[in-house]
Design goal:
By secondary structure, this protein is mainly alpha-helical. It has a single domain, classed as MetI-like fold, CATH 1.10.3720.10. 73% of the residues lie in helices and 0% in strands. The chain is built from 14 helices and no strands. Helix 4 packs across helix 13, helix 11 runs antiparallel to helix 14 and helix 13 packs antiparallel against helix 14.
Length: 308
C-alpha cells in the first residue's frame, strides 16, 4: 500500500533534517552577526590595540617604538605607582565597611511599611542619583576655609576656628573624601539590601517573635543569612568602585598635595594625559584590571565557600 506524502510534510521533514523546524541554520548566524561585529569592532579590536600600545613607548603625540615588556617591568619600580596602589587600598579598606553598615541600617529603617518610608528612601538614595561629579563640585565650595559651610558649622560648635584648609592637607582631605563617599553612595547599598529584605516572608519574623527572639537575633539569625548573597554583591560593588575611584579625587584634590591623595586611576591619567606616556599608562591600566579581577574572584570564591 503506497502512502502519499504531502508537500507540507516533505518541507517539515527537510527542515527537521537541517536542524531547525522554523528557520535554516544560516538565519541564526545572520541574526547574531550584527552583535558579533559590534563586539569585534568596539571591544576586541580596542583591547588588542591597547595590549600592543602597552608594549611600546607610545607617546600621546609623536612616533613610537616597540619595547616589549619594559613598561610592565619598570611599573612597580616607580614609587608614584606603588604609592598610588597603597593609597587606593587604604581608601578601599576605610570606606567599604562604613558603606555596608550605613546602607544596611538605612535599609532596616525604610523597609518597614510605615508612613514616610517612601520619602526617606528617596532622600537617602538622592545623593547617588545626583552623582559624584556634581556633589564633588559642591563639596569644593563647602570645604573652603572660612567661607565653606563645613568650617562655619565647626566654628559654631566650637570645634575649630573655622579656617581649616581641608583640601590641601593629605590626611584631612582623605578623611573628608571618605566621609563624603560613605554618605554619597550608601543609598545604592540601601536599595540593594532593602530589595532583598522585602523578599523575606513576614511569617518567619512572626514565628521568631513568638519564640521570644529580639530584633538583633532576628537580624543575625534570619535576615543576614537569607540576604547574604545580596550583601556580598554590595561589598563587591563597593570594593570595585573604590579601586577605580577617580572623579572625587580629581575634582577635590587633583591627587595633591603632591601625590598624597593620588589613586591608581589618577596615576594612569597623569601618565597618559599629563606626562604623555600612553604606553606606560596602558600598562598601568592592565595591572589595575588584573588587581580588580583578582579581588573580585576572591570575593566570589569566599561566597561560594560559605554556600557550600
Amino acid at each position: 500500500m503506497t502512502t502519499t506524502v504531502s508537500p507540507l510534510e516533505r518541507e517539515y521533514a527537510s527542515r527537521k533534517r537541517r536542524g531547525s523546524l522554523i528557520h535554516p541554520p544560516r538565519t541564526g548566524m545572520m541574526l547574531v552577526l550584527p552583535a558579533l561585529l559590534f563586539v569585534m569592532v568596539f571591544v576586541v579590536a580596542p583591547l588588542v590595540l591597547a595590549v600592543y600600545i602597552s608594549l611600546t613607548n607610545w607617546p600621546l603625540i609623536g612616533t613610537y617604538r616597540f619595547i616589549g615588556l619594559a613598561n610592565y617591568l619598570t611599573l612597580f619600580q616607580d614609587p608614584a605607582f606603588v604609592q598610588s596602589i597603597l593609597y587606593t587600598l587604604l581608601y578601599t579598606v576605610i570606606v567599604t565597611v562604613p558603606i555596608l553598615v550605613l546602607g544596611y541600617l538605612l535599609a532596616v529603617l525604610v523597609r518597614a511599611k510605615r508612613r514616610g518610608a517612601t520619602l526617606l528612601r528617596t532622600i537617602f538614595f538622592l545623593p547617588y542619583v545626583v552623582g559624584l561629579t556634581t556633589l564633588s563640585f559642591i563639596l569644593v565650595l563647602e570645604a573652603q576655609p572660612s567661607s565653606g559651610l563645613i568650617n562655619v558649622l565647626l566654628k559654631l560648635l566650637n570645634i575649630s576656628d573655622g579656617s581649616t584648609a581641608w583640601l590641601v592637607n593629605g590626611p584631612l582631605a582623605t578623611g573628608l573624601i571618605c566621609v563624603f563617599i560613605v554618605w554619597a553612595v550608601s543609598g545604592l547599598t540601601m536599595v540593594l539590601i532593602m530589595s532583598a529584605m522585602q523578599g523575606v516572608p513576614d511569617e518567619v519574623y512572626e514565628a521568631a517573635s513568638l519564640e521570644g527572639a529580639s530584633w538583633w537575633q532576628q537580624e543575625r539569625l534570619i535576615t543576614i543569612p537569607i540576604i547574604r548573597n545580596t550583601i556580598a554583591l554590595s561589598v563587591i560593588i563597593s570594593v570595585v568602585g573604590s579601586l577605580l575611584a577617580f572623579t572625587q579625587f580629581y575634582i577635590l584634590t587633583r591627587g595633591g598635595p603632591g601625590t598624597e591623595t593620588q589613586t591608581v586611576v589618577g596615576y594612569i591619567y597623569n601618565r597618559a594625559f599629563v606626562q604623555l606616556q600612553l604606553g606606560a599608562a596602558t600598562a598601568g591600566a592592565f595591572a589595575l584590571i588584573i588587581v580588580v579581577a583578582l579581588v573580585t574572584a576572591f570575593q566570589f570564591w569566599a561566597l561560594r565557600e560559605k554556600n557550600s
